[in-house]
Amino acid sequence: MVVAFTALGSGPVWAEPVVEDRPPVSEQAAPADTVPASETEPSGSDPRSPAPDGSAEDADAGEEEGAAPDTADTDTLDGDAEVEPFDEARSVEYFAVAPEELPEEAVEAVSDIDGVEHALTVDAARLEIEGEQTSLLGVDPSTFRNHAPEPSAESDDVWQGVAEGALALSKDAGTERDLEVGADVTVQGGKGEVPMEVWTHATSGIAGIDALVSRERAAELGMPEGNALVVSASDADLFDLQEELEDTLEEYDPSLQLVADAPEPMTEGEAVPPTVIEDVIANAETQLGVPYVWGGTTPGQGFDCSGLLQWAFSEAGVSIPRVTHDQWNAGSRVDFDDMERGDLIFWRSDPTAPDYISHVAIYLGDGEMLEAPRTGLDVQVTPVRTENFAGVVRVHA
Predict the structure, then answer these.
(1) Are 154 and 68 in contact (CB under 8 A)?
(2) Would the pTM count as exceeding 0.90?
(3) HSE (side-chain half, CA atoms, 13 Å) at 260
(4) Is residue 305 annotated as a catalytic residue, yes or no?
(5) C-alpha atoms less than 13 angstroms from C-alpha of 310 in its C-beta half-sphere
(6) DSSP structure string for 156-175
(7) Which is catalytic among the residues 164, 244, 371, 396?
(8) What does each C-alpha distance from 53 to 291, 309, 383 come to in angstroms?
């Protein structure tokens, strides 16, 4: 599930900073009767249904949830890059990215906001990996690992490989694009092509970010330095924090992304009316038989799961975010038994990031849904699955 980016500034196109093409944070957050995902469980008696091809929903179902991600051959590690051990798990509430480097005083100002526990500086850019545009972060493995999903955070092998110059791809990017662990790939940066090894498939936990490298590699690729912040504020009011971040970073023209699940209403708005929902479903049904394409947003040619739904809603005059994890915050959570035609159904099926929202479909009624399943399958109607079920969202406009 890739996010669309708009490049700003001058310089080589593949070295330009990424500024995420999302609606304002106030439109990303869930209104009214939102409840935490952990409190939303399927309460119906429907049996679990198989994935469209008859297999388990997760293409890598044999991989144990919560287990450390696989890596390439650790015997190739030199051990010449020091990586600090895992310290403690730190949440990520917001991700902020600016067109240019954020000065030290801006980082300090964010750190001083009431409730902010950590403000971690990273590098953010859109580059090409094997010819496909990919959003990438340059990170210090010793510090970023504490903000990563737990299965990855605790793995010394994952971060040692990144520290020594290898590439970590998200589970989606690696599997859907057939870029296997241990494969050699070419990354096109502002300073030319750089060969790298795919070290692991490990999701960053930040929606739309599909690759991680060390900050040394980021500099080699010509990425902007220190133009993004990972903000931890686990006890902060998300609405108040949003306003503080917008005020503090205003002069740097940032794009602000809500990463955390919104536990309380942050916007007002009514659910999309049934007449419009019928238009949305009719739009989606015109794409039945169109192939799944990772990052796809093109009618008649290919969609990924969230791209299909964003397009279907847009054609009906309703704006929703591009990325699955953001669509999770695009309306109010409803109980499984109260699901209605047009509601969005979500799953958490990434073993490298068990809390990450990784798939979405639209409910048609009578136990059926419409989805763009995964590579090798077309847009189709399937029975509702409760395997790895996360919850149901009723979209608000």
Answers:
(1) yes
(2) no
(3) 25
(4) yes
(5) 26
(6) HHHHHHHHTT-EEEPHHHHH
(7) 371
(8) 14, 21, 12
Could you list the beta-strand ranges (E) of 111-246: 118-129, 132-139, 167-169, 184-189, 192-201, 211-214, 228-232
Which pLDDT belongs to residue 131?
Answer: 92
* pLDDT at residue 46, as a whole number: 30
Residue (of 299, 248, 232) closest to 88 by Cα position: 232
Q: Is 278 one of the catalytic residues?
A: no
Q: Which of 118, 147, 359, 396 is catalytic?
A: 359
Residue 32 has a pLDDT of: 29
Local structure of 178: helix, strand or coil: coil
> β-strands 380-383, 368-371: how paired?
antiparallel
Catalytic (active site) residue 371: yes
For residues 109 and 248, the answer to whether their CB atoms sit within 8 Å is yes
Length of the chain: 397
pLDDT of res. 66: 63
CA-nearest of 29, 34, 30 to 256 is: 29
pLDDT of residue 36: 30
Q: So what's the pLDDT on residue 40?
A: 30
* Spatial distance between the Cα atoms of 215 and 71, rounded to a whole number of angstroms: 20
Domain 37-58+264-395 has CATH 3.40.50.720: no
- Ordered by start, the domain boundaries in the chain are 5-23+65-258, 37-58+264-395
Q: Which of 57, 93, 147, 305 is catalytic?
A: 305
With beta carbons less than 8 A apart as the criterion, state whether 179 and 169 touch.
yes
Q: Please provide the DSSP assignment of 313-360 as one string.
A: HHHTT----SSHHHHTTSEEEE-GGG--TT-EEEE---TTSTTS--EE
Q: Which parts of the chain have pLDDT scores under 50?
A: 1-62, 264-267
Q: What span, in angstroms and rounded, lies between the C-alpha atoms of 231 and 92?
A: 6
